[in-house]
Specification:
It contains 18 helices and twelve strands. The longest helix has 16 residues, at about 125-140. The protein has helices at about 5-10, 15-25, 30-35, 40-45, 50-60, 65-70, 85-90, 125-140, 150-160, 185-190, 210-220, 235-245, 260-270, 280-285, 290-300, 305-315, 320-330, 330-345, and strands spanning about 75-80, 100-105, 110-115, 140-145, 165-170, 195, 225, 250, 275, 320, 350, 355-360. By secondary structure, the protein is of the alpha/beta class. It starts with a helix and ends with a strand.
Length: about 350
């Protein structure tokens, strides 16, 4: 896979996820699509302005130089076709075809919770954020947020203070950290997690960029918790995306006298977010109560390569034996017999006749 052409299309207006998918279906790869003539593009139903935009940028962009510039900024590129592209994000509608990443997104980050909220956080909101995040991190959960002032910054900082992992999703290029006062925090995050954006380096933090980036915050996460949000808070946009994506949504209630709690209280009242008064409310809802212990089981208990490979595939969500056979490339009888032995050892649990989860 040549990432130059993914990079090129990401820098041309008019080529979002749906159009990139259509180009891949029509041409097979983006190199062919990038070099295609206007007639072929028109035959695919691409409008004139998008074709003109491509032709204009194609004549002016040196994709080799652009790729080198990204590398010089210590930024990696992940595309839909990259095996390291986050599976949770890949599963949403309109997932970004390309991500810029400074730092590293690792397999444990598949167990992630988004924590978002107001920039004008109260002392109550600060305490609630620290309590929630420290409890999540203690269970090995990655914290996802948006690097903004207020709740976002406290969430990232608390995760780092407790030696946890955290991902920050930016509404600008990764070389344009916003807000400026969080540059040092961003640097810390890049060494204990990752900075993530679908905006190219050099893109400024314009107001219009932030609502769309919220789909990535929720898309990277099993669930989203909002802490203190007014009725018009941008944090509620993240909740809307999470609901559309079929992800779990949570809200911490606040005082009836505090306008910053109007949004969160309304979510709870309408049944759009589950009430959270303790970290266990989130962990139990998502079946994540024993993640830390489960990871210890993964690391310490396997007695054979077969057990180890099956543990790597199992998690808190049930997976069918047929899927384990397919993903492990092991014989069906080997998988079945190994699972029986692992169940006797207390390593896994059978949740129905043919599905398993890692033991709680």
């Amino acid at each position: 896979m040549d990432k130059r052409y993914w990079l090129g299309f990401n820098m041309v207006s008019g080529y979002g996820p749906a159009r990139i998918e259509a180009l891949l279906e029509r041409f097979g790869d983006l190199e062919y699509a990038w070099n295609s003539d206007a007639a072929n593009l028109r035959a695919l139903g691409i409008p004139r302005d998008a074709i003109e935009s491509l032709l204009y940028h194609r004549a002016r962009l040196d994709l080799e130089d652009e790729l080198a510039r990204v590398a010089d900024l210590d930024i990696d590129i992940l595309t839909w076709q990259d095996p390291n592209y986050p599976e949770l994000l890949r599963d949403i509608d309109q997932s970004p075809p390309l991500l810029y990443v400074r730092g590293e997104i690792t397999p444990p980050d598949a167990l992630a919770i988004a924590v978002v909220g107001t920039r004008k956080v109260t002392s109550y909101g600060q305490s609630a954020t620290r309590e929630l995040v420290s409890g999540l991190v203690a269970q090995g959960i990655t914290i996802v947020s948006g690097l903004a002032l207020g709740v976002d910054g406290i969430a990232h900082t608390t995760a780092l203070e407790h030696n946890g992992r955290t991902l920050a999703v930016l509404g600008c290029g990764l070389d344009e950290v916003y807000p400026a006062r969080h540059r040092a925090l961003a640097e810390q995050i890049s060494t204990s997690g990752a900075l993530v954006s679908d905006y190219a380096p050099g893109v400024k933090p314009e107001a219009r960029n932030f609502p769309p980036r919220n789909r990535i915050i929720s898309g990277l996460s099993l669930g989203t918790v909002v802490i203190e949000a007014g009725e018009r808070s941008g944090s509620l946009i993240t909740i809307r995306y999470a609901l559309d994506q079929g992800r779990e949504t949570f809200a911490i209630p606040g005082s009836m006298f505090n306008p910053l709690s109007d949004g969160t209280n309304a979510l709870i009242r309408r049944g759009e977010a589950k009430l959270v008064t303790r970290v266990e409310d989130v962990l139990e809802e998502l079946n994540l109560s024993m993640v830390a212990e489960q990871r210890q089981v993964r690391e310490l208990v396997p007695d054979s390569p077969t057990e180890a490979s099956l543990l790597d595939l199992l998690g808190p969500e049930p997976i069918q034996v047929d899927d384990l056979v397919r993903q492990s490339h092991l014989a069906a009888n080997v998988v079945s017999s190994t699972l029986c032995m692992m169940e006797l050892k207390g390593m896994v649990q059978r949740v129905d006749r043919s599905a398993y989860v890692i033991a709680r």
